[in-house]
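ERR on first pass: missing label on line 2. Operator R.T. fixed the label and resubmitted. Corrected input:
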Amino acid sequence: NAGVTQTPKFQVLKTGQSMTLQCAQDMNHNSMYWYRQDPGMGLRLIYYSASEGTTDKGEVPNGYNVSRLNKREFSLRLESAAPSQTSVYFCASSRTVTDTQYFGPGTRLTVL
Amino acid sequence: DQQVKQNSPSLSVQEGRISILNCDYTNSMFDYFLWYKKYPAEGPTFLISISSIKDKNEDGRFTVFLNKSAKHLSLHIVPSQPGDSAVYFCAAKSNTNAGKSTFGDGTTLTVKP
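pass 2 clean. output:
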């Protein structure tokens, strides 16, 4: 039982490049989330998916797109990376939006 | 404006003593509060939560207190252990928007042997 897995663990991009962060959960959870954490700050919600087929904006959605590919997988895409998107990205899942969230280990992204 | 604030960036406590971590919020719509613990290079893990209909919730060494009138909650760890050294995040959400949690900036707890 792996829980929430994220790939890649580390990534360096140049300004303007695009990439997709992958997240998968094996807990049969309905809800999934993407957060970012900047140094010295708390987690900020980028997007979430309450259930398969739905996605909603969080606190800081600009510059990002998401896809709930199926119940297990929720990807985050940066179409044109900017230095301001340098951060650690965490994916999380929960049985429903009212239940405890379980987090992945994070992806450390640097945009030069 | 930050809706969830943890005003102490760090706290150092002796092993065996009580650790008290504080959190303040401004949004009166918040009705569910959570504490997460985070070790370096790992994702946060859920620790304990409290609903606004309660003023205390206890789970082993961890107790969360909620003072709704003051919009303040605190996490007590008794007794503190070196393995408790981590960053602790307070988070809040409302029942009407349960998918959106708002986090504080975290408090780094160091428990000295």
